[in-house]
Write a structure and sequence with these properties.
Blueprint (H helix, E strand, L loop, with lengths): L1 H10 L3 H23 L28 H5 L14 H19 L2 H24 L4 H17 L9 H30 L6 H44 L2 H6 L4 H4 L9 H27 L1
Bound molecules: zinc ion.
């Protein structure tokens, strides 16, 4: 079994990358369901996929990414506009899965895919609702600890016990950092600077990526957040021009208001992804600059 797998992998190096692209698009389709249903307290399993008009979506019109282009973004049953975000999330998941498989050793690629799936759901829900659901957050922490034990190389550990130990330390450092920041920031600024969900989220990031990953995400997310706020300011300045207002779609009202507070979760997650991809190199670079 394993030798057949290796033979295929050597003979057709793109075979499994392609297979993971397809798998990623199917997983992405499920992540869409999670992103839209979990905040409403709906089941992610039943009923099956259905349109906003209530009609069930047949399986051939539910093919990830392709169906949206085939339907030109309009529901077959009622002609309702289907958000570009559906194929975008599917494509994003597909690319992340394929890239993980292609560029990473398998025992880091697999937890990277699991991490990404949670990251996408949490980031989009937080973006939409300014709220991280406890059920997803708690699963993220639990699955993070399981991955740290099952894939010790993810945390640079030699065996499952060492891996789990690093995961638990990461969970502790991540959640405690966020907890105390939240505590002191609320004393200083007299308003909530970080949500309760972010405390669990940073704990989960630590469970997956260890304490270094948790601290990196904590500090780096503030840079990303600052950059995003600046971009939003520029964007909203442009939006006040009359010709921009005409083309503004209904989606814009959710993210157009630069003065409304930003959710922190997406920036924490983006920082964690950056750490996942280049974290070790970035830290080495930082210390080489300090040493020079
Ligand atoms: Zn419909």
């Amino acid at each position: 079994m394993l030798s057949l797998f290796q033979e295929v992998n050597i003979a057709f190096p793109w075979f499994f990358t392609g297979a993971f692209f397809v798998l990623g698009s199917v997983v992405g389709s499920f992540l869409n369901v999670c992103i839209y249903r979990i905040p409403n307290g709906e089941s992610v399993v039943s009923p099956g996929s259905h349109c906003a008009c209530g009609k069930p979506i047949p399986i051939w019109l539910n093919v990830p990414v392709l169906a949206w282009f085939f339907l030109r973004g309009k529901a077959a049953c009622c002609g309702r506009k289907i958000s570009l975000r559906y194929p975008a999330v599917e494509l994003l998941t597909a690319v992340v899965f394929a890239a993980s498989w292609h560029f990473l050793p398998w025992d880091i690629a697999v937890p990277a895919m699991i991490f990404s799936a949670f990251a996408i759901v949490l980031a989009f829900i937080d973006w939409d609702t300014m709220y991280l659901p406890d059920s997803v957050n708690a699963s993220f922490v639990l699955v993070g600890l399981m991955c740290s034990a099952a894939f010790p190389p993810l945390l640079g550990a030699g065996n499952a016990v060492e891996g789990l130990f690093s995961g638990i330390i990461g969970l502790g450092v991540g959640s405690m950092t966020a907890y105390w920041f939240r505590y002191f920031a609320s004393l200083v600024f007299r308003r909530e600077a970080m949500g309760e969900g972010d405390v669990i989220l940073l704990g989960g990031i630590g469970a997956f990526l260890g304490w270094e990953g948790a601290l990196f995400s904590f500090f780096f997310s503030s840079f990303i957040g600052l950059f995003a706020v600046l971009l939003a300011r520029i964007f909203s300045l442009r939006k006040t021009e009359p010709e921009m207002k005409e083309t503004a779609s209904a989606d814009d009202e959710t993210d157009g208001n630069a003065s409304s507070p930003f959710p922190l979760g997406p920036w924490l997650i983006l920082a964690a992804v950056i750490y996942f991809v280049v974290g070790a190199k970035l830290i080495a670079f930082y210390f080489s600059v300090l040493g020079a």
